[in-house]
Each structure stands twice: as C-alpha cells, then as structure tokens.
Design a protein that fits this description.
This protein has 69 residues and is mainly alpha-helical. It has one domain. 51% of the residues lie in helices and 0% in strands. The protein is elongated, with a radius of gyration of 15 Å.
Length: 69
C-alpha cells in the first residue's frame, strides 16, 4: 500500500471537530450511528455532508473573487 493511501486511512474527517450541525457526528442519534461510523472516519471523502460543505466553501471563495474583480 502506498504511503499516501496508508496515511489517508488513518485520518478522520477534517470537519469532525468543527461541530457543523449537518454532520452525522453532531447530536448523534441511533439513526445516525451507521453514517457517523461510515463517514466521520476514513471514508470521509465519500460523505455527502462533506461534499456539500466543501462545495459551499468553494462557491463562497469564487463569489468573493468575482466581487473583487
């Protein structure tokens, strides 16, 4: 296994400690446990919440750059 793949496997979601209300690991309930286990750990790149959050941030940055032009 390549070093980068191995390193990624040991990481958790970068938003894990950010406490975004949308995240599965915030206000966890029995209905969210399986998603929290799946997405807040090493599979975070597949997480629909993370994709939404990072897409939102990209759109904010693009809007700011457009305003500054």
């Amino acid at each position: 296994m390549a070093h980068n793949q191995q390193h990624r496997m040991l990481q958790n979601c970068p938003y894990l400690r950010a406490n975004h209300k949308e995240c599965y690991c915030v206000d966890i309930t029995s209905s969210k446990v399986s998603d929290a286990i799946k997405y807040c750990g090493t599979n975070y790149l597949d997480c629909p919440v993370l994709k939404t959050l990072t897409g939102y941030k990209r759109n904010q940055v693009a809007a700011r750059q457009q305003q500054q032009s």
